Each structure stands twice: as structure tokens, then as C-alpha cells.
């Protein structure tokens, strides 16, 4: 097999890894809505955070291999790789305020994350703070955006329409 084929295989494997790990975090986001026990919430948020670390590494590898494959395959003269990058930017840009920020607010309310770097060790918030943070967790929209993004990216990569 040639280099291009190996780059595409590596890209697909890295995407699968990133999506699998990101799915763990997405599932945790659905689960925290039904949970009110602080210890269990903390465990779910810890699982979500550690899965996102792996997902981020997988995504970075997937992006780098995808760009490398596009260069080796001579695809950057076409529009579809640029459209793929645009879709990825839009999806990440939409999911951050809809998913990551509310989950971080929940971590802050539980006292397991600082508000900003350099702050003193966090203290758990009140039950009202926790209830407010839990009310801000709305996983359906970011999940729908993520699924739509996966579908569009798969179509772009497979069909290479333009």
C-alpha cells in the first residue's frame, strides 16, 4: 500500500477513537441531568473529562493525518477538504458553548474545578448553585449538531463532491 492509503486508514482510525471517547463524554452529559448525588455527579464529570482528553488527542491526530492525506492525495486544490475543515470549526464552535461551558459550570458548582487559573482551591457551591448548573445542562442540541457534523464530514470524505 502507498503512503496515501496508510494516511487515510490512520485518519479513519483516529476519527473512530476520537468519536468513541467523545461519546463517553456525551453519554455522561445525558446522565448528569438525572443525577443529584454530588459524589456520583463528580464521578460522571471525572469520567467525562478524562474521556475528552483522549478524544482531543484522537481528534488532533485525525486532523493532522487528514491534512497530510489531503496534501499527499492532491486534494487541497478541491473544495471538499476546505469544506470539511469549515464543518469541523462550526461544530466545535457550536458545541463549546452548548456542552463544554455548561459542564464546566457544573464542575465549578461541585467544587471540582476552579473558575479560572490561579484562583484558590474551589469550594462546593450551594444546592441552589448546583440546581442552577444542572438546569443549564441540555445535551440534545449538541448531540444533534455532533451527529449532523459526523454525517456531513462522512459524506464529504466519501463522495468528494467538489
Termini Cα gap: 26 Å
The parts where pLDDT drops under 50 for at least 5 residues are none
- Element string (H = helix, E = strand): HHHHH
Report the structural category.
mainly alpha
Radius of gyration: 19 Å
Overall pLDDT score: 93
Q: What percentage of residues falls in helices of 4 or more residues?
A: over 70%
Whole-number total of structural domains: 1
Number of helices: 5
Number of DSSP E strands: 0
Structural overview:
By secondary structure, the protein is mostly helical. It has one domain. It is built from five helices and no strands. Helix 2 (38-72) runs antiparallel to helix 3 and helix 3 packs antiparallel against helix 4. The relative contact order is 0.14.
Write a short abstract of this structure.
This protein has helices at 3-32, 38-72, 80-110, 127-135, 140-159.
Write the layout of secondary structure elements.
Elements: H1 3-32, H2 38-72, H3 80-110, H4 127-135, H5 140-159
Helix pairs in contact: 1-2, 2-3, 3-4, 3-5
Q: What features would you highlight for this structure?
A:
162 residues, mainly alpha
Amino acid at each position: 500500500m502507498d503512503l496515501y492509503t496508510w494516511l487515510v486508514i490512520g485518519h479513519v482510525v483516529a476519527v473512530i477513537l476520537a468519536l468513541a471517547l467523545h461519546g463517553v463524554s456525551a453519554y455522561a452529559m445525558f446522565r448528569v441531568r438525572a443525577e443529584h448525588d454530588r459524589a456520583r455527579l463528580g464521578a460522571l464529570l471525572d469520567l467525562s473529562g478524562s474521556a475528552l482528553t483522549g478524544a482531543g488527542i484522537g481528534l488532533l491526530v485525525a486532523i493532522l493525518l487528514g491534512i497530510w492525506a489531503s496534501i499527499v492525495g492532491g486534494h487541497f486544490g478541491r473544495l471538499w477538504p476546505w469544506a470539511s475543515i469549515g464543518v469541523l470549526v462550526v461544530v466545535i464552535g457550536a458545541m463549546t458553548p452548548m456542552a463544554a461551558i455548561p459542564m464546566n459550570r457544573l464542575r465549578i458548582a461541585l467544587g471540582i474545578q476552579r473558575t479560572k487559573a490561579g484562583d484558590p482551591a474551589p469550594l462546593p457551591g450551594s444546592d441552589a448553585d448546583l440546581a442552577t448548573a444542572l438546569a443549564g445542562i441540555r445535551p440534545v442540541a449538541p448531540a444533534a449538531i455532533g451527529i449532523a457534523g459526523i454525517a456531513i464530514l462522512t459524506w464529504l470524505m466519501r463522495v468528494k463532491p467538489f
